[in-house]
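[job 4471] stage=fold_predict status=RUNNING
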Amino acid sequence: MSVLLELTAANIETYLDQIVAIEQEAFAEPWTRTDYLEDAERTIAHLLALVDEAQPERLLAYAGFWRVLDVADINNVAVLASCRGQGLGSVLMAGLLDLARLLGCCRVVLDVRPSNVAALALYTKMGFAPCGRRPGYYQDNGEDALVMECLLAERTYMMSKPRNEL
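[job 4471] inference complete, writing structure tokens
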């Protein structure tokens, strides 16, 4: 079992080394420790962590977004390599989308490599659809970024509160 929690400037240090390790493993252009520390100080930034319920100090996955007006722009989603394929990405994305909705967002956007088949499948499953392309976006190999969006008013996720509690 896993537990979802929001990381802030007050608690990010607990998981920061693990975030950076997963980041370096998962991405060709990883964020640095400093990037995450600075991001934790931004009022627009929101970072969720999925931790092992039996070992709460063990990070399994994380994802973050920036909220600008009523749009959440997802910047990172990563699952520990040894935990991939277990549905943790779905749990994490559901939590992320619910948090965005609770913060007043009605639209969530993200960029993804067209070659990242697993991520595309997850995002499609979570209700995202392609809405654009950024040519040559990824600097490591010049790959385009596929822009995807999810309209929250049309979706309900497993972690949402009933509408009368919002």
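[job 4471] summary: Residues 88-102 form the longest helix (15 residues).
[job 4471] exit 0
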